[in-house]
Design goal:
Elements: H1 7-20, H2 52-63, E1 73-76, E2 89-91, E3 94-98, H3 107-121, E4 125-128, E5 133-136, E6 145-152, E7 169-175, H4 181-190, E8 197-202, H5 205-221, E9 229-234, H6 255-268, H7 273-285, E10 287-293, E11 314-316, E12 327-329, H8 335-347, E13 365-372, H9 378-394, E14 398-405, E15 415-422, H10 433-441, H11 460-466, H12 471-478, H13 488-516, H14 521-538, H15 546-561, H16 563-584, H17 593-608, H18 621-631, H19 638-651, H20 667-673, H21 678-691
Parallel strand pairs: 1-3, 6-7, 6-8, 8-9, 13-14
Antiparallel strand pairs: 2-3, 4-5, 5-7, 10-11, 10-15, 11-12, 13-15
Helix pairs in contact: 1-2, 4-5, 6-7, 8-9, 13-14, 13-21, 14-15, 15-16, 16-17, 17-18, 18-19, 18-21, 19-21
Length: about 700
């Protein structure tokens, strides 16, 4: 049939037949796979093969009469493949298998396994494995049922929101592909009740058609129940302008989760189908969402692709299926700049393309949802929430509730979206604001729901002003112990030398820690040293009050260094302050070598109650203990103590790590490169500079 084509073209056409237009048993022709198109021209591309040359050589050999040539196994990487394609198929004797790298295996299995994991963790849920429907195992059939669904890859949406007070069932398609009508009908059957069912879908053509078809089929088969199934399409995206979306409408994004929550909570109160539908529709008409991404997501089971965006770009308005946004921005703005651009789209009242919310511009009230699209850390998400709330406040928009977390993802997309629900004004014909807020706050057993704030968001600045004094501040206000250095000016100079030395040593310490730890030791010590130096120059740390100086260093360490080393330094200097107070009691007002020795021993002993590290441990404890022990000997020789600390730090080159980050690093590499412990080296730098 394809003898007139080249081997390359012939095999591609064979794949086109077998993968794209194969008839399944008991059905008509079906599209087993989504075609692959060129983004530039819209033209078809080849099916991607891992070892296509073997296939082409095999076809050429068969044409040449070489029947003895063994058929190769060809890996065909397909973007979207349904669950039914479980086995390799044979094309002209060539086995073709779906392939791609991901932790969960191929798309053929990861969805089923994920849903099975969800119901394993949540026994109140049931799973129809064949139809991929997650449902409440024991629903209250005296209440209105809510069904949703769509393509997978947006977890916890949609199955994660099945629970009392939210959804009754979720119908799951393959990754980024709508479930079929038979799946949806199974969901309707599982939740059938006398109060009615509300089907909620995001505004995507496949979802609307398949869920709509299932609704109509169910109504045709059960005429008496036809009026007990309602249908709501939710579109909340503001990136697609009104002109562009004239026919298709706005895309459904994270805002649909707020519809699930409010409608589900209302249904749980016993509201009838009309009441639940009307409130859900009102919420749907008053939500707006826009997203931003640093890169496209990766679909499990597909070969990694080249970066869609450069490292200096972001894309505003990206969809949750890798759809392009409405604009790219380069260079990447600050977080404040990104948030401002997103809010411009959400809150515009003058842009004829995007003024979707009926804002008054005078004291509008909203519920805010900041959604992780999949690849944003919790650390970053917290900063994003704060920036969005602050920017809204600056625009005179009052935030009544804040929801933050992972609600509607795009697999592992590094990005986030902002959703605003515009709350009704007193004169509005919509549902009362206090009702909507109560429904948002209402409890639910849905495992994916993350409730964040049940009251007005806090004012960070006001909270800081109103905070009670810290224990360190209280101690400074009540303690009157004064112990001075014999040479206050010399003490100040020594501390300054140590800070400068640590600052200069940062690159060396960082390089060491890149091999022996997590790479932050140099910067951590530098941050602490710079803060101490600033305190010295401001007069907070000085030689007239050694106890106060030790307390100040302790506070600086915990506030500016952070991490394990910051905690260890803070504990040591806090204990040193106590040790100096005890050692100086009843003695001279000037710190002698004996007082220092006793205080240092006390501080080291106190530190040992909080760490298991003991010399030799390849940690900062090694040189610190060596310094204290040498200085505490009868002569209190500072030079000998510094030398002992230096030797202990050098010795960490050959010591097996027993504590700290180095304990997790391959020991052979540390021994081979003879990298000293960076924390220990930092102590060496400090004591050598102090004694210089």
């Amino acid at each position: 049939m394809f003898s007139s084509y080249s081997p390359h073209k012939a095999f591609q056409l064979i794949l086109e037949q077998d993968f794209y237009k194969t008839s399944l048993p008991g059905s008509g022709p079906s599209r087993l796979c989504e075609p692959i198109f060129s983004h530039e021209s819209g033209s078809r591309l080849d099916w991607p093969l891992a070892n296509g040359q073997d296939a082409y050589a095999f076809i050429a050999g068969r044409r040449a009469g070489e029947d003895s040539v063994e058929a190769p196994v060809i890996e065909v990487r397909i973007l979207r493949t349904p669950i039914v394609l479980r086995r390799p198929i044979t094309v002209m004797g060539i086995q073709s298998v779906y392939s791609g790298a991901s932790l969960g295996g191929s798309e053929l299995t990861v969805l089923t396994e994920s849903l099975e994991g969800l119901v394993t963790l949540n026994p109140q849920l049931g799973l129809d494995v064949d139809q991929k429907v997650v449902y409440l195992a024991e629903p209250d059939r005296s209440k209105v049922a809510l069904i949703c669904g769509g393509g997978s890859g947006h977890e916890p949406s949609h199955a994660g929101f099945v629970g009392n007070g939210m959804l009754t069932a979720a119908v799951c398609g393959n990754i980024f592909a709508s479930p079929g009508p038979n799946q949806v009908r199974r969901g309707i059957e599982l939740t059938d009740n006398n109060q009615g069912t509300l089907i909620i879908v995001k505004n995507y053509t496949g979802d609307v058609l398949n869920f709509g078809l299932a609704k109509e089929q169910f109504a045709a088969e059960h005429p008496a129940k036809a009026d007990r199934v309602r249908f709501l399409v939710v579109g909340d995206d503001v990136a697609v302008g009104k002109t562009q979306g004239t026919i298709v409408g706005r895309r459904g994004l994270a805002g649909v989760v707020l519809v699930y929550k409010i409608a589900g909570a209302l249904a749980r109160t016993g509201a009838n189908l009309d009441e639940v539908y009307n409130v859900a529709e009102w919420v749907s008409n008053n939500i707006a969402t826009v997203g931003v991404g640093l890169e496209h997501c990766h679909v499990p089971g597909t070969a990694p692709t080249e970066s869609h965006l450069s490292s200096s770009e972001i894309e505003i308005g990206m969809g949750i299926h890798n759809e392009p946004g409405n604009k790219r921005v380069s260079p990447v703005p600050s977080l404040h700049g990104i948030v401002e651009q997103l809010l411009d789209l959400l809150l515009s009242t003058t842009d004829p393309e995007r003024s979707f919310l009926p804002l008054s511009g005078k004291g509008d009230e909203v519920a805010l949802m900041v959604n992780n699209l999949g690849g944003v850390s919790e650390l970053e998400l917290g900063a994003i929430v704060r920036e969005v709330e602050k920017s809204l406040s600056g625009r005179s928009v009052r935030v009544q509730r804040v929801l933050s977390g992972t609600f509607m993802t795009s697999l592992n997309m590094p990005g986030f979206s902002i959703t605003l629900l515009l709350l009704p004004k007193a004169s509005s014909t919509g549902p009362p604001t206090d009702l909507l807020l109560r429904l948002l706050d209402a409890p639910t057993s849905a495992p994916g729901w993350k409730w964040s704030s049940g009251t007005l968001p806090g004012d960070v600045a006001a909270a800081s002003r109103a905070a009670p004094p810290t224990s360190a501040q209280s101690a400074q206000a009540t303690e009157s112990v004064r112990l001075r250095a014999p040479d206050p000016a010399g003490f100040k100079s020594a501390v300054e030398r140590a800070c400068v030395a640590v600052d200069k040593a940062e690159p060396e310490l960082t390089q060491m820690d890149n091999v022996a730890g997590d790479g932050d030791c140099g910067l951590t010590l530098q941050a602490g040293a710079n803060a101490v130096l600033e305190a010295v120059r401001k007069g907070t740390i000085h030689g007239e009050d050694l106890v106060g100086a030790a307390v100040a260093v302790s506070g600086i360490a915990v506030d500016n260094m952070g991490g394990t080393s910051g905690a260890l330094y803070s504990i040591f200097f806090s204990a040193l302050a106590q040790g100096l107070t005890t050692a100086a009691r009843g003695k001279s007002e000037a710190a002698t070598h004996a007082i220092w020795a006793q205080a240092l021993e006390s501080a080291l002993a106190r530190l040992y109650t909080y760490t298991r590290a003991r010399p030799p441990s390849r940690t900062l404890v090694d040189p610190l203990a060596a310094f204290v022990e040498a200085f505490s000997k009868g002569s209190h020789d500072l030079g000998a103590a510094v030398a002992a600390a230096g030797q202990a730090a050098e010795h960490t080159r050959d010591v097996e790590a027993k504590a700290g980050r180095s304990a997790y690093v391959e020991g052979d590499r540390l021994k081979e490169e003879r990298i000293p412990d960076p924390g220990a080296w930092g102590v060496k730098v400090i004591v050598e500079a102090l004694a210089a």
